[in-house]
Amino acid sequence: MLAVDECKSVVPDGGNTILGVDRKARLAPQIARERGWAAREVARFLIVADSRTNRRRIEQHRALFEAAFPVFGRHAKAWIRSPATPPISGLLFLPVAGGGRSSRHRVDPSCQIPR
């Protein structure tokens, strides 16, 4: 199983953000085969910097994001800790690097899911 993780510090547009994850998830099995990996399934995760602006933008398009990523928060983290079939599509908010609220802070480049 593959996991496609899209890390965003800002969510400027819901539709384009989701399309980008969809495209990567669609291409992932082919890319894996080219590298000699035998993956049949793909889990998808959108990991977003936890800011008021990002939460507001996702809330404004709640139905769109819930349809694309029906598993949120701790349920997505639980799946990551113990992946199972079927794969999921999840959305997680990740604290910004540095812990501040300024828009200058970005998602930690390692994009590790907090345990």
Strand content: 15-25%
Mean pLDDT: 85
Termini separation comes to: 21 Å
Low-confidence stretches: 102-110
Number of domains: 1
The total count of helices amounts to 4
Helix share bin: 40-55%
What is the ordering of alpha helices and beta strands? EHEHHEHE
Sheet of most strands: 4 strands, parallel
* Structural class category: alpha/beta
Which descriptors would you attach to this protein?
single chain; 115 residues; alpha/beta; 4 helices
At a glance:
This protein is of the alpha/beta class and 115 residues long.
Protein model, in words:
- With 115 residues, this protein is α/β, with parallel strands linked by helices.
- It has one domain (2-94).
- Helices cover 40% and strands 20% of the residues.
- The protein is built from four helices and four strands; from the N terminus they run E-H-E-H-H-E-H-E.
- Helix 4 links the parallel strand 3 (71-72) and strand 4.
